[in-house]
Amino acid sequence: MLIRRENPGDVEAVRAVVAAAFAPYEAARNPDRPDGLPVEVTLLDELRADPGWLPELSLVAPAPDGGIAGHVVCTRAHVGTVPVLGLGPLAVHPAHQRRGVGSALVHAVLGAAEALGEPLVALVGSPAYYARFGFEHSETYGVTAPDPGWGEFFQVRVFERPVPPPAGPFAYAEPFSRVDEG
Known about the structure:
Helix 1 runs antiparallel to helix 2. The protein has one domain: Aminopeptidase, CATH 3.40.630. A hairpin with a 5-residue loop joins strand 2 (53-62) and strand 3. By secondary structure, it is α+β, with helices and mostly antiparallel strands. Strands 1, 2, 3, 4, 5, 6, 7, 8 and 9 form a 9-stranded mixed beta sheet that branches. The model has no long low-confidence stretch (mean pLDDT 93). The protein contains 5 helices and 9 strands, in the order βααβββαβαββββα. The relative contact order is 0.17. Helices cover 29% and strands 29% of the residues. This is N-acetyltransferase.
């Protein structure tokens, strides 16, 4: 499966994929949201305008029909004062789910992050899903979640380096703290 870097012409198609992928969850989380857009669309828009946006880590999976099947992004985050990455959102259009698109995107963005020399990537997600990519509970490495309620869902993938991975409090790019999930 081809995974490539997002280009400027992909922005609207990526927004549409994120909206379609998260629409079922948004209706349950925020039934009174006036625009009906999933919070992940707003987050993505705000991340694009943030200094934490890393265009080299915004990847798409083109669809066979020429559109976009999926998207993933890593943005600049920190463990204490050490620069690291936060993964997400990850979105696959419902018409392309359960075909390996999400897995291919995660493998590609982790490979790119490691090639760039990043020490670790953190995310909030299903331990059952993300364990296959080498993610472990953050506390295994002394990384504390911004929200203790995330528990086992806050995970890190540590890359092999000559120095130990950073430990301490994790902070996502600033838009994550502004965008409200309801």
